[in-house]
Protein backbone atom coordinates (compact mmCIF):
# COMPACT_ATOMS: atom_id res chain seq x y z
CA UNK A 1 0.00 0.00 0.00
CA UNK A 2 1.34 3.45 -0.87
CA UNK A 3 2.32 5.69 2.05
CA UNK A 4 -0.16 8.29 0.84
CA UNK A 5 -3.17 6.02 0.97
CA UNK A 6 -6.07 8.54 1.09
CA UNK A 7 -7.68 6.91 4.09
CA UNK A 8 -4.75 7.45 6.46
CA UNK A 9 -3.94 11.05 5.64
CA UNK A 10 -0.20 10.38 5.85
CA UNK A 11 2.70 11.19 3.55
CA UNK A 12 2.97 13.97 1.03
CA UNK A 13 0.75 12.43 -1.63
CA UNK A 14 -1.89 13.99 -3.83
CA UNK A 15 -4.72 13.44 -1.33
CA UNK A 16 -2.77 14.07 1.90
CA UNK A 17 -3.95 17.63 2.57
CA UNK A 18 -7.51 16.76 1.57
CA UNK A 19 -7.67 13.75 3.89
CA UNK A 20 -6.14 15.78 6.73
CA UNK A 21 -8.68 18.58 6.44
CA UNK A 22 -11.60 16.17 6.33
CA UNK A 23 -10.40 14.17 9.33
CA UNK A 24 -10.11 17.39 11.34
CA UNK A 25 -13.77 18.10 10.70
CA UNK A 26 -14.89 14.66 11.87
CA UNK A 27 -18.04 12.89 10.83
CA UNK A 28 -21.42 14.54 10.31
CA UNK A 29 -22.65 16.12 13.49
CA UNK A 30 -25.32 14.35 15.50
CA UNK A 31 -27.63 15.33 18.28
CA UNK A 32 -29.74 13.16 20.52
CA UNK A 33 -33.46 13.88 20.68
CA UNK A 34 -33.48 13.32 24.44
CA UNK A 35 -35.92 16.18 24.88
CA UNK A 36 -38.74 14.07 23.53
CA UNK A 37 -40.19 11.54 25.95
CA UNK A 38 -40.11 8.01 24.56
CA UNK A 39 -37.39 8.75 22.03
CA UNK A 40 -34.42 8.92 24.38
CA UNK A 41 -31.06 8.23 22.78
CA UNK A 42 -32.12 8.53 19.14
CA UNK A 43 -29.71 10.58 17.05
CA UNK A 44 -30.57 13.02 14.30
CA UNK A 45 -27.99 13.86 11.66
CA UNK A 46 -28.26 16.87 9.38
CA UNK A 47 -25.75 16.24 6.57
CA UNK A 48 -25.79 19.90 5.62
CA UNK A 49 -25.44 21.40 9.09
CA UNK A 50 -24.01 20.99 12.58
CA UNK A 51 -25.17 20.19 16.10
CA UNK A 52 -26.96 23.51 16.40
CA UNK A 53 -29.71 22.65 13.91
CA UNK A 54 -30.14 18.95 14.68
CA UNK A 55 -33.22 19.66 16.84
CA UNK A 56 -34.82 21.55 13.97
CA UNK A 57 -33.88 18.75 11.57
CA UNK A 58 -35.70 16.25 13.84
CA UNK A 59 -39.05 17.79 12.92
CA UNK A 60 -38.49 17.34 9.19
CA UNK A 61 -39.03 14.21 7.12
CA UNK A 62 -41.79 12.22 5.43
CA UNK A 63 -43.52 10.85 8.54
CA UNK A 64 -46.69 12.30 10.03
CA UNK A 65 -46.53 12.53 13.83
CA UNK A 66 -49.01 9.70 14.43
CA UNK A 67 -47.29 7.44 11.87
CA UNK A 68 -43.89 8.20 13.35
CA UNK A 69 -45.06 7.32 16.86
CA UNK A 70 -46.58 4.04 15.70
CA UNK A 71 -43.48 3.08 13.72
CA UNK A 72 -41.20 3.78 16.69
CA UNK A 73 -43.35 1.73 19.07
CA UNK A 74 -43.16 -1.18 16.64
CA UNK A 75 -39.43 -0.87 15.92
CA UNK A 76 -37.77 0.08 19.21
CA UNK A 77 -37.58 -3.54 20.38
CA UNK A 78 -35.42 -4.36 17.34
CA UNK A 79 -32.57 -1.96 18.12
CA UNK A 80 -29.30 -3.77 17.55
CA UNK A 81 -30.97 -6.47 15.44
CA UNK A 82 -30.78 -7.52 11.79
CA UNK A 83 -34.18 -6.47 10.45
CA UNK A 84 -33.65 -7.51 6.82
CA UNK A 85 -36.71 -9.78 6.75
CA UNK A 86 -38.05 -10.01 10.30
CA UNK A 87 -40.23 -6.90 10.24
CA UNK A 88 -43.30 -6.10 8.12
CA UNK A 89 -42.88 -2.49 7.05
CA UNK A 90 -45.51 -0.01 5.79
CA UNK A 91 -45.52 0.78 2.07
CA UNK A 92 -45.17 4.50 2.86
CA UNK A 93 -41.40 3.96 2.95
CA UNK A 94 -41.24 1.83 -0.24
CA UNK A 95 -40.41 2.61 -3.83
CA UNK A 96 -42.14 0.72 -6.70
CA UNK A 97 -39.15 -1.54 -7.36
CA UNK A 98 -37.78 -4.76 -5.88
CA UNK A 99 -34.27 -5.68 -4.78
CA UNK A 100 -33.97 -7.87 -7.89
CA UNK A 101 -34.58 -4.85 -10.11
CA UNK A 102 -32.20 -2.75 -8.06
CA UNK A 103 -29.46 -5.30 -8.81
CA UNK A 104 -29.96 -4.54 -12.50
CA UNK A 105 -29.20 -0.85 -12.01
CA UNK A 106 -25.50 -1.76 -12.15
CA UNK A 107 -25.97 -2.25 -15.87
CA UNK A 108 -26.72 1.41 -16.67
CA UNK A 109 -23.06 2.21 -17.37
CA UNK A 110 -22.06 -1.25 -18.58
CA UNK A 111 -20.18 0.36 -21.47
CA UNK A 112 -17.38 0.94 -18.95
CA UNK A 113 -16.96 -2.83 -18.67
CA UNK A 114 -16.89 -3.02 -22.46
CA UNK A 115 -14.03 -0.51 -22.39
CA UNK A 116 -12.26 -2.48 -19.66
CA UNK A 117 -12.39 -5.55 -21.88
CA UNK A 118 -11.16 -3.70 -24.96
CA UNK A 119 -8.21 -1.79 -23.51
CA UNK A 120 -4.65 -3.09 -23.76
CA UNK A 121 -3.58 -1.15 -20.63
CA UNK A 122 -3.97 -3.34 -17.50
CA UNK A 123 -4.26 -0.30 -15.21
CA UNK A 124 -6.81 1.52 -17.35
CA UNK A 125 -8.76 -1.73 -17.25
CA UNK A 126 -9.06 -1.22 -13.50
CA UNK A 127 -9.98 2.45 -13.93
CA UNK A 128 -12.87 1.59 -16.24
CA UNK A 129 -14.09 -1.35 -14.15
CA UNK A 130 -13.95 0.46 -10.80
CA UNK A 131 -15.71 3.51 -12.29
CA UNK A 132 -18.48 1.15 -13.38
CA UNK A 133 -18.76 -0.09 -9.77
CA UNK A 134 -18.98 3.50 -8.48
CA UNK A 135 -21.56 4.60 -11.05
CA UNK A 136 -24.45 2.83 -9.30
CA UNK A 137 -24.09 4.76 -6.05
CA UNK A 138 -26.17 7.67 -7.32
CA UNK A 139 -29.05 5.19 -7.57
CA UNK A 140 -28.19 3.66 -4.19
CA UNK A 141 -28.66 7.02 -2.45
CA UNK A 142 -32.41 6.84 -2.93
CA UNK A 143 -34.13 6.99 0.43
CA UNK A 144 -37.02 4.67 -0.44
CA UNK A 145 -36.89 0.98 0.39
CA UNK A 146 -37.29 -1.54 -2.45
CA UNK A 147 -39.69 -4.46 -1.95
CA UNK A 148 -38.21 -7.69 -0.65
CA UNK A 149 -38.61 -10.31 -3.42
CA UNK A 150 -40.88 -13.31 -2.97
CA UNK A 151 -39.03 -16.63 -2.95
CA UNK A 152 -38.66 -17.69 -6.59
CA UNK A 153 -39.34 -14.20 -7.92
CA UNK A 154 -37.25 -13.13 -10.92
CA UNK A 155 -36.35 -10.07 -12.95
CA UNK A 156 -35.37 -10.13 -16.62
CA UNK A 157 -33.90 -7.35 -18.75
CA UNK A 158 -33.41 -8.07 -22.44
CA UNK A 159 -30.75 -6.64 -24.73
CA UNK A 160 -30.21 -3.28 -23.04
CA UNK A 161 -27.16 -1.97 -24.91
CA UNK A 162 -26.43 -5.58 -25.79
CA UNK A 163 -26.72 -6.79 -22.16
CA UNK A 164 -29.11 -9.52 -21.02
CA UNK A 165 -29.79 -9.75 -17.28
CA UNK A 166 -31.56 -12.27 -15.02
CA UNK A 167 -31.89 -12.29 -11.23
CA UNK A 168 -33.73 -14.65 -8.89
CA UNK A 169 -34.62 -14.75 -5.20
CA UNK A 170 -32.90 -17.98 -4.20
CA UNK A 171 -33.57 -17.95 -0.45
CA UNK A 172 -36.10 -16.36 1.88
CA UNK A 173 -34.47 -16.97 5.28
CA UNK A 174 -31.90 -15.57 5.04
CA UNK A 175 -32.99 -13.38 2.10
CA UNK A 176 -30.58 -14.02 -0.77
CA UNK A 177 -30.57 -13.01 -4.42
CA UNK A 178 -28.44 -14.14 -7.34
CA UNK A 179 -27.86 -12.31 -10.59
CA UNK A 180 -26.21 -12.88 -13.96
CA UNK A 181 -25.61 -10.52 -16.88
CA UNK A 182 -23.76 -10.99 -20.12
CA UNK A 183 -22.84 -9.40 -23.41
CA UNK A 184 -20.06 -9.90 -25.94
CA UNK A 185 -17.46 -8.32 -23.63
CA UNK A 186 -18.19 -9.53 -20.10
CA UNK A 187 -20.15 -11.74 -17.76
CA UNK A 188 -21.35 -10.50 -14.38
CA UNK A 189 -22.24 -12.84 -11.52
CA UNK A 190 -23.45 -11.86 -8.07
CA UNK A 191 -24.70 -13.58 -4.93
CA UNK A 192 -26.16 -11.11 -2.43
CA UNK A 193 -27.19 -11.63 1.19
CA UNK A 194 -27.79 -8.23 2.75
CA UNK A 195 -27.29 -7.94 6.48
CA UNK A 196 -28.52 -5.01 8.56
CA UNK A 197 -28.19 -3.53 12.03
CA UNK A 198 -31.05 -1.34 13.20
CA UNK A 199 -29.87 1.53 15.41
CA UNK A 200 -33.10 3.38 16.14
CA UNK A 201 -33.01 6.41 13.86
CA UNK A 202 -30.53 4.83 11.46
CA UNK A 203 -29.61 1.49 9.97
CA UNK A 204 -26.33 0.02 8.79
CA UNK A 205 -26.56 -2.11 5.66
CA UNK A 206 -23.73 -4.61 5.17
CA UNK A 207 -23.29 -5.81 1.57
CA UNK A 208 -22.59 -9.46 2.33
CA UNK A 209 -22.07 -10.80 -1.15
CA UNK A 210 -19.74 -11.81 -3.92
CA UNK A 211 -19.51 -9.89 -7.18
CA UNK A 212 -17.38 -11.25 -10.01
CA UNK A 213 -16.88 -9.81 -13.48
CA UNK A 214 -15.14 -11.83 -16.19
CA UNK A 215 -13.74 -9.90 -19.15
CA UNK A 216 -14.06 -12.18 -22.14
CA UNK A 217 -11.13 -11.15 -24.35
CA UNK A 218 -8.39 -12.18 -21.91
CA UNK A 219 -10.44 -14.16 -19.39
CA UNK A 220 -9.57 -11.68 -16.63
CA UNK A 221 -11.65 -12.11 -13.44
CA UNK A 222 -12.41 -9.09 -11.25
CA UNK A 223 -13.67 -9.31 -7.66
CA UNK A 224 -15.51 -6.43 -5.96
CA UNK A 225 -15.84 -5.67 -2.23
CA UNK A 226 -17.98 -2.52 -1.68
CA UNK A 227 -18.26 -0.39 1.47
CA UNK A 228 -21.21 -0.62 3.85
CA UNK A 229 -24.12 1.80 3.57
CA UNK A 230 -25.60 3.87 6.38
CA UNK A 231 -29.18 5.16 6.17
CA UNK A 232 -29.72 8.09 8.53
CA UNK A 233 -32.86 9.75 9.97
CA UNK A 234 -35.30 6.87 9.54
CA UNK A 235 -37.84 8.34 11.98
CA UNK A 236 -36.74 11.88 12.78
CA UNK A 237 -35.48 14.22 10.07
CA UNK A 238 -34.97 13.87 6.35
CA UNK A 239 -33.69 10.42 5.40
CA UNK A 240 -30.31 10.37 3.66
CA UNK A 241 -27.71 7.79 2.68
CA UNK A 242 -23.94 7.62 3.04
CA UNK A 243 -21.43 4.88 2.17
CA UNK A 244 -18.21 5.63 4.07
CA UNK A 245 -15.24 3.32 3.81
CA UNK A 246 -13.22 1.35 1.27
CA UNK A 247 -14.19 -0.14 -2.05
CA UNK A 248 -11.68 -2.72 -3.25
CA UNK A 249 -11.64 -4.24 -6.72
CA UNK A 250 -9.05 -6.96 -7.31
CA UNK A 251 -7.89 -8.49 -10.55
CA UNK A 252 -7.74 -12.13 -9.46
CA UNK A 253 -5.82 -13.00 -12.63
CA UNK A 254 -2.93 -10.51 -12.32
CA UNK A 255 -3.02 -9.25 -8.73
CA UNK A 256 -3.61 -5.61 -9.71
CA UNK A 257 -6.20 -3.81 -7.62
CA UNK A 258 -8.03 -0.57 -6.98
CA UNK A 259 -8.52 0.82 -3.48
CA UNK A 260 -10.99 3.70 -3.33
CA UNK A 261 -11.99 5.50 -0.17
CA UNK A 262 -15.51 6.91 0.15
CA UNK A 263 -15.19 9.94 2.43
CA UNK A 264 -17.68 10.17 5.31
CA UNK A 265 -19.95 13.21 5.40
CA UNK A 266 -18.52 15.94 7.65
CA UNK A 267 -19.75 19.25 9.05
CA UNK A 268 -21.98 21.19 6.64
CA UNK A 269 -21.65 18.41 4.07
CA UNK A 270 -17.86 18.53 3.88
CA UNK A 271 -16.44 15.49 2.12
CA UNK A 272 -19.87 14.12 1.22
CA UNK A 273 -19.90 12.07 -2.01
CA UNK A 274 -16.09 12.32 -2.43
CA UNK A 275 -14.11 9.28 -3.58
CA UNK A 276 -10.31 9.10 -3.77
CA UNK A 277 -7.81 6.33 -4.29
CA UNK A 278 -5.34 4.52 -6.49
CA UNK A 279 -4.86 1.73 -8.97
CA UNK A 280 -2.02 -0.50 -7.72
CA UNK A 281 0.01 -3.14 -9.52
CA UNK A 282 0.55 -6.61 -8.05
CA UNK A 283 3.50 -5.23 -6.04
CA UNK A 284 1.14 -2.62 -4.46
CA UNK A 285 2.85 0.27 -6.22
CA UNK A 286 0.46 3.10 -7.20
CA UNK A 287 0.09 3.55 -10.95
CA UNK A 288 -2.98 5.74 -11.43
CA UNK A 289 -4.75 8.05 -9.00
CA UNK A 290 -8.53 8.37 -9.12
CA UNK A 291 -10.72 11.11 -7.67
CA UNK A 292 -14.26 12.38 -7.98
CA UNK A 293 -17.74 12.26 -6.50
CA UNK A 294 -19.95 9.21 -6.69
CA UNK A 295 -22.97 11.38 -7.50
CA UNK A 296 -21.26 13.33 -10.31
CA UNK A 297 -18.17 11.95 -12.06
CA UNK A 298 -14.82 10.20 -11.71
CA UNK A 299 -11.43 11.19 -13.15
CA UNK A 300 -7.98 9.63 -13.28
CA UNK A 301 -4.33 10.63 -13.75
CA UNK A 302 -1.07 8.69 -14.05
CA UNK A 303 1.09 8.93 -10.92
CA UNK A 304 4.58 8.04 -9.70
CA UNK A 305 5.58 5.53 -7.02
CA UNK A 306 4.74 8.05 -4.29
CA UNK A 307 1.26 8.64 -5.63
CA UNK A 308 2.09 12.08 -7.06
CA UNK A 309 0.77 13.08 -10.51
CA UNK A 310 3.33 12.51 -13.25
CA UNK A 311 4.65 15.71 -14.87
CA UNK A 312 2.99 16.43 -18.18
CA UNK A 313 -0.18 14.50 -17.30
CA UNK A 314 -3.60 15.84 -16.39
CA UNK A 315 -6.81 14.63 -14.83
CA UNK A 316 -9.12 13.01 -17.39
CA UNK A 317 -12.76 12.26 -16.85
CA UNK A 318 -13.70 8.61 -17.22
CA UNK A 319 -17.34 8.61 -16.09
CA UNK A 320 -20.03 11.27 -15.73
CA UNK A 321 -23.53 10.90 -14.37
CA UNK A 322 -26.21 10.98 -17.03
CA UNK A 323 -28.93 13.62 -16.76
CA UNK A 324 -31.66 12.56 -14.34
CA UNK A 325 -35.36 13.54 -14.27
CA UNK A 326 -36.04 16.63 -12.21
CA UNK A 327 -38.35 16.45 -9.19
CA UNK A 328 -38.91 12.71 -9.62
CA UNK A 329 -40.98 11.42 -6.70
CA UNK A 330 -38.72 8.44 -6.10
CA UNK A 331 -35.47 10.05 -7.25
CA UNK A 332 -35.40 7.65 -10.20
CA UNK A 333 -32.95 7.95 -13.05
CA UNK A 334 -34.16 7.52 -16.63
CA UNK A 335 -32.63 4.04 -16.52
CA UNK A 336 -34.58 3.14 -13.36
CA UNK A 337 -37.80 3.99 -15.19
CA UNK A 338 -36.70 1.71 -18.05
CA UNK A 339 -36.08 -1.09 -15.56
CA UNK A 340 -39.66 -0.77 -14.33
CA UNK A 341 -41.13 -0.55 -17.83
CA UNK A 342 -41.98 -3.40 -20.18
CA UNK A 343 -39.78 -1.83 -22.87
CA UNK A 344 -36.82 -3.78 -21.46
CA UNK A 345 -38.79 -7.00 -20.97
CA UNK A 346 -38.00 -10.03 -23.14
CA UNK A 347 -40.46 -11.96 -25.24
CA UNK A 348 -42.54 -14.41 -23.16
CA UNK A 349 -41.76 -12.72 -19.87
CA UNK A 350 -41.59 -15.11 -16.93
CA UNK A 351 -44.74 -14.86 -14.72
CA UNK A 352 -42.39 -14.55 -11.73
CA UNK A 353 -41.05 -11.18 -12.95
CA UNK A 354 -40.95 -8.25 -10.51
CA UNK A 355 -42.71 -5.92 -12.95
CA UNK A 356 -45.85 -8.03 -12.53
CA UNK A 357 -46.09 -7.73 -8.74
CA UNK A 358 -49.50 -6.20 -7.95
CA UNK A 359 -48.21 -4.37 -4.85
CA UNK A 360 -45.34 -2.82 -6.80
CA UNK A 361 -47.63 -1.77 -9.65
CA UNK A 362 -50.27 -0.32 -7.30
CA UNK A 363 -47.61 1.80 -5.59
CA UNK A 364 -46.33 2.94 -8.98
CA UNK A 365 -49.88 4.04 -9.81
CA UNK A 366 -50.11 5.92 -6.50
CA UNK A 367 -52.61 3.60 -4.77
CA UNK A 368 -50.86 3.09 -1.43
CA UNK A 369 -53.83 1.36 0.22
CA UNK A 370 -54.09 -1.26 -2.52
CA UNK A 371 -50.34 -1.71 -2.51
CA UNK A 372 -50.35 -2.44 1.22
CA UNK A 373 -53.20 -4.95 0.87
CA UNK A 374 -51.54 -6.72 -2.07
CA UNK A 375 -48.24 -6.84 -0.20
CA UNK A 376 -49.89 -8.46 2.84
CA UNK A 377 -51.71 -10.94 0.62
CA UNK A 378 -48.52 -12.07 -1.13
CA UNK A 379 -46.60 -12.36 2.12
CA UNK A 380 -49.36 -14.58 3.53
CA UNK A 381 -49.29 -16.70 0.35
CA UNK A 382 -45.54 -17.08 0.78
CA UNK A 383 -45.98 -18.27 4.37
CA UNK A 384 -48.66 -20.72 3.25
CA UNK A 385 -46.37 -22.10 0.52
CA UNK A 386 -43.64 -22.57 3.13
CA UNK A 387 -45.99 -24.47 5.46
CA UNK A 388 -47.02 -26.73 2.58
CA UNK A 389 -43.39 -27.52 1.74
CA UNK A 390 -42.60 -28.31 5.36
CA UNK A 391 -45.63 -30.58 5.69
CA UNK A 392 -44.50 -32.52 2.60
CA UNK A 393 -40.86 -32.59 3.69
CA UNK A 394 -39.83 -30.60 0.62
CA UNK A 395 -37.30 -27.80 0.17
CA UNK A 396 -37.17 -25.01 -2.37
CA UNK A 397 -34.71 -25.25 -5.26
CA UNK A 398 -33.98 -22.17 -7.42
CA UNK A 399 -34.67 -22.51 -11.14
CA UNK A 400 -31.90 -20.50 -12.75
CA UNK A 401 -29.10 -20.68 -10.17
CA UNK A 402 -27.52 -23.60 -8.30
CA UNK A 403 -26.09 -23.59 -4.79
CA UNK A 404 -22.40 -24.50 -4.79
CA UNK A 405 -20.21 -25.98 -2.08
CA UNK A 406 -18.22 -22.76 -1.95
CA UNK A 407 -18.51 -20.56 1.14
CA UNK A 408 -16.62 -17.31 0.72
CA UNK A 409 -15.60 -14.98 3.57
CA UNK A 410 -16.61 -11.31 3.46
CA UNK A 411 -15.85 -8.46 5.90
CA UNK A 412 -19.34 -8.97 7.36
CA UNK A 413 -19.70 -12.74 7.45
CA UNK A 414 -19.50 -15.88 5.35
CA UNK A 415 -21.54 -16.28 2.19
CA UNK A 416 -22.92 -19.36 0.45
CA UNK A 417 -22.30 -18.89 -3.26
CA UNK A 418 -24.85 -19.54 -6.02
CA UNK A 419 -23.85 -19.93 -9.65
CA UNK A 420 -25.74 -19.35 -12.89
CA UNK A 421 -26.67 -22.78 -14.27
CA UNK A 422 -27.28 -21.82 -17.91
CA UNK A 423 -30.86 -23.14 -18.03
CA UNK A 424 -32.12 -19.60 -18.54
CA UNK A 425 -30.20 -19.32 -21.82
CA UNK A 426 -31.98 -22.42 -23.12
CA UNK A 427 -35.32 -21.04 -21.95
CA UNK A 428 -34.68 -17.68 -23.54
CA UNK A 429 -33.59 -19.20 -26.86
CA UNK A 430 -36.82 -21.19 -27.04
CA UNK A 431 -38.92 -18.19 -25.99
CA UNK A 432 -37.37 -15.97 -28.65
CA UNK A 433 -38.28 -18.52 -31.33
CA UNK A 434 -41.84 -18.82 -30.07
CA UNK A 435 -44.71 -17.28 -31.99
CA UNK A 436 -46.43 -16.46 -28.72
CA UNK A 437 -46.81 -12.68 -28.64
CA UNK A 438 -48.74 -12.38 -25.37
CA UNK A 439 -48.80 -8.86 -24.01
CA UNK A 440 -46.59 -9.10 -20.86
CA UNK A 441 -48.87 -6.64 -19.06
CA UNK A 442 -51.63 -9.27 -19.17
CA UNK A 443 -49.56 -11.90 -17.32
CA UNK A 444 -50.54 -12.63 -13.72
CA UNK A 445 -47.69 -12.54 -11.21
CA UNK A 446 -46.90 -16.08 -10.09
CA UNK A 447 -43.45 -16.75 -8.60
CA UNK A 448 -44.60 -20.23 -7.56
CA UNK A 449 -45.26 -21.56 -11.08
CA UNK A 450 -41.67 -22.58 -11.84
CA UNK A 451 -40.58 -23.49 -8.32
CA UNK A 452 -38.71 -26.80 -8.12
CA UNK A 453 -39.15 -28.90 -5.00
CA UNK A 454 -36.86 -31.57 -3.67
CA UNK A 455 -37.21 -33.95 -0.72
Automatic annotation (TrEMBL):
Pfam family, one: Oxysterol_BP
Region (Disordered): 365-397, 429-455
GO cellular component terms given for this protein: cytosol; membrane
SUPFAM superfamilies in UniProt: Oxysterol-binding protein-like (SSF144000)
Entry keywords, A to Z: Lipid transport, Lipid-binding, Transport
Ranges of compositional bias, category Polar residues: 440-455
Biased composition (Basic and acidic residues): 372-393, 429-439
Molecular function terms from GO: sterol binding
GO biological process: lipid transport
UniProt record similarity statement: Belongs to the OSBP family.
Protein name: Oxysterol-binding protein
UniProt source species: Brassica carinata
Amino acid sequence: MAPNDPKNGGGSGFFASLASSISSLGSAMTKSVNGLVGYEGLEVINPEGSTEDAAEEANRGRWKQEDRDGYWKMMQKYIGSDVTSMVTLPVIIFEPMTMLQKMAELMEYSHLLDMADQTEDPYMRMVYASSWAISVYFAFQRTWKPFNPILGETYEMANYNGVNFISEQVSHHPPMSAGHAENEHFTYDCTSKLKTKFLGNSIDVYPVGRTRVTLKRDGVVLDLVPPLTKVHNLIFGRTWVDSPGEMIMTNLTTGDKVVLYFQPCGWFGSGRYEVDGYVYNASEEPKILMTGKWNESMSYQQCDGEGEPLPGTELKEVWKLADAPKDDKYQYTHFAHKINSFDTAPKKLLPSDSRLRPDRYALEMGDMSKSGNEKSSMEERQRAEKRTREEKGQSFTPKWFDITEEVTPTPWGDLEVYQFNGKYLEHREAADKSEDNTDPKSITFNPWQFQDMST
